[in-house]
Amino acid sequence: MARLDDQETMKGSEMGTVDDNNNSDSSSSSPEERPDAAKSPGPSGGKYQLRPRSVHARRLCDSDWSFGESLRHKPRAAPLSRYRRKTANARERYRMRQINTAFESLRGVLPSWVCSRRAASDMTKIATLRLASAYIRSLQDILDGSAPQDTCSWVLSAILDNAPSGPQKPASPIHQASSGQFLEHQGQGADLVSILTGASSHQVFQDNLESFCYMSPVSHNDDFMLGCEPPRVWSEA
DNA sequence: TAGGCCATCTGGTCCT
DNA sequence: AGGACCAGATGGCCTA
């Protein structure tokens, strides 16, 4: 079934590839076996890169295939034993659980007002990544002093509102820097907390809905966004 | 019912 | 050799 986050892999499925994982025949056109996928390691240039899954496909798309003849007749690896398959499955489940735990942690780090802009069920993994990306970008812009004033006050107030109740902790360097930028932006010596208190009112919250678009999770410069949905303007629920 | 999201299984590949 | 990582395939669940 086609999935949005599988747009890359969709191209393979759309071709009607019915690969049962046992047949890495040359007719397979999965995206990994596309030359562009194989030759574009991406900006990360990480440890693992997209590459054709089958040896045959790699030989077809990779002109400087260096293993060449030695692998032409490489025998197919014997399937894992039942025991090893089960342990491998367990490790994979554990690995995926860790990934999901990390996503939960990331959702926990995001201010609740960010997540509350969406239904809980809408905080998918990709949405979480995009929101986090946008949130970080906005914080960076605040530090740079390039964020619109409304966004400064709104974001800062939301952060404070989201802070756990109790004795106020000393302002972090980031907080101090942010408040300094903000006050400088305001051009007044007003107390940050009072400003933020006022800014956290419901009315201001509503007033800032428009400026929230400033925090659009989508940037055309985001590599991971290429080929994905167009910029989303978050509308009021 | 189609589409989106997810968990799981699986085989291939890389690394230690 | 075995573990880690990755991506394809598949089926379940949910929603519009």
UniProtKB/TrEMBL annotation:
<protein>
    <submittedName>
        <fullName>Putative helix-loop-helix protein delilah</fullName>
    </submittedName>
</protein>
<dbReference type="Pfam" id="PF00010">
    <property type="entry name" value="HLH"/>
</dbReference>
<dbReference type="GO" id="GO:0003700">
    <property type="term" value="F:DNA-binding transcription factor activity"/>
</dbReference>
<dbReference type="InterPro" id="IPR011598">
    <property type="entry name" value="bHLH_dom"/>
</dbReference>
<dbReference type="GO" id="GO:0070888">
    <property type="term" value="F:E-box binding"/>
</dbReference>
<feature type="region of interest" description="Disordered">
    <location>
        <begin position="1"/>
        <end position="52"/>
    </location>
</feature>
<dbReference type="GO" id="GO:0005634">
    <property type="term" value="C:nucleus"/>
</dbReference>
<feature type="compositionally biased region" description="Low complexity">
    <location>
        <begin position="19"/>
        <end position="30"/>
    </location>
</feature>
<dbReference type="InterPro" id="IPR036638">
    <property type="entry name" value="HLH_DNA-bd_sf"/>
</dbReference>
<feature type="domain" description="BHLH">
    <location>
        <begin position="83"/>
        <end position="139"/>
    </location>
</feature>
<dbReference type="InterPro" id="IPR050359">
    <property type="entry name" value="bHLH_transcription_factors"/>
</dbReference>
<dbReference type="GO" id="GO:0009653">
    <property type="term" value="P:anatomical structure morphogenesis"/>
</dbReference>
<dbReference type="GO" id="GO:0045944">
    <property type="term" value="P:positive regulation of transcription by RNA polymerase II"/>
</dbReference>
<feature type="compositionally biased region" description="Basic and acidic residues">
    <location>
        <begin position="1"/>
        <end position="11"/>
    </location>
</feature>
<dbReference type="GO" id="GO:0046983">
    <property type="term" value="F:protein dimerization activity"/>
</dbReference>
